[in-house]
Amino acid sequence: MDMNSTQSKAIVYFCPRITADNLVRVYEALGRKAIGHVAIKLSTGEAGNPNHLSTDVIKKFVHLVDGTIVECNTAYDGRRCNAADHLQTAAEHGFTAIAEVDIMDATGPDLVLPVKKHKHIAENYVGRNWRNYDFTVVLSHFKGHPMGGFGGALKNVAIGMASAEGKAWIHTAGRSKTVPVDWENVPPQNDFLESMAEACESVFDAAGDNILYISVANNLSVDCDCVAEPEPVHMEDIGILASLDPVALDRACVDMVYNSPDPGKVHLIERIESRNATHILDYAEELGLGTQQYTLVTIPAEQDGV
Fold first, then answer.
1. What's the whole-model pTM score?
2. Short-list 170, 198, 171, CA closest to 284
3. Domain boundaries in the chain?
4. Can you say whether the dihedral through the CA atoms of 89, 34, 104, 288 is positive or negative?
């Protein structure tokens, strides 16, 4: 994996102002062009959740790379557990107005990816339509998460790209593909976090260098976009971060929460620590998926634009 590294440190680009123009500038700083048939993996957000990525912010970038927004159905009951309702929710949140939206597991069978290094899952079940794309942009909304502690690039790949049954497989650490998941009988937390990292390994192996990672750290609720009625946002927005190394990117986002002068950060920090969330970074690094050592390169904010 090309981690765009200097002396074994990955480079993470950062812009403190979240605008459409700055999202494009951060993407261009990576030096890797999204070409061919481009999949943009993001969360369209559960119905009723206002915290998902703003289409005003992402539209210019989506059009620049001529991308298709890709998603997979959920492993819980809600408005995104089937393709028809999922597309309707995506439309309500404005995503279908800016690009085609492909629910990659709308029809089966799943795309089965081998996991070379694993303790929990030997196979990862990804939405079958992913095989139709040449390049993947992992465009994540960094925030808290009820189960993972935080949601960033790694979660967006692991859970986000898995089919509904694949999501169940990861959540249960390879014990079951039954949907909806029996949330009362899930495995120990570290097994779940490690299963997410193993799922990422399979996707990264398949993608090679045809993938990049951008995270927008805003609307920093302790809850994910998958929660219909999330907890209130308690801290200010951080900015846009990007890297060719997803582990470094997630670590940089977490570090920015901890280093923020905003007293509201205590809520998100409690969520991260109570879920042992950074274990996914340790295990991903152990698997060779990236490094937690990084150099932060700040891109001055462009004041024009949305």
1. 0.95
2. 198
3. 5-298
4. negative
